[in-house]
């Protein structure tokens, strides 16, 4: 789907409800607010403590799925060199430290608005005053949610944080290799067994989307990072909580033309790939965004309250 400036928010909502992650590019409008982190109920030492990272060994990995959507076919084997990836998504406390040290203004702060899925109205709206400090608009706050993943960050915001941290965003192929591991048959970051249940495994939408999230996993909206079981390699929240930006440009036919060794994807495009399920993800169609091979896309200027990121070492 081509992202365009002139698509209406009604069409955007309809596409998102259908599980299509392509969304409208918006212009940055409005006055720049003063960049200051909120008061956090966490000490500066805790906020600045480095998060644990996981080493993903080099070798052969499988990407894609032959029975999945067109953009995850053909399934390919690729070779990756070893890399380090953050065990968790970047949290509000971590992003607050970045803002405190740099005075950085996010795209949502510059434009004065951002996309919000509102649980009460069951609608997607472009809401004035929504940004990383007030994720659903005025009256909302991240105070008490310092260990939740930061949201309302564009690809450019995530890239700026990664540069400040001396890291980078993962390619979508690094992300999938980290989520799938060496188990070529694995659709999820953990093996599903007869006793496995999604509410116990990941923060996902439960119930009829978008009518009602039953919240039997304990949360409607984001949850603290590392709140659910990790993958076998020690990575958390790959299937739920928030979707994650990658460094890769999106193309429907990416897998037809990528390099076999250390692929990064197309060199240009209109949207960046996001990976992983979020608290909004549902498997009502039989295919879930929580599956390790599922690809989504967003315009790099876009921010919302269900997409965040994690980093890899350079």
TrEMBL record:
Record's protein name: Sulfatase-modifying factor enzyme-like domain-containing protein
A GO molecular function held by the record: formylglycine-generating oxidase activity
The organism named in the record is Blastopirellula marina
Q: Where is this region: Disordered?
A: 260-284
- Coiled-coil spans are none
Superkingdom field: Bacteria
Sulfatase-modifying factor enzyme-like domain ranges (all copies): 51-312
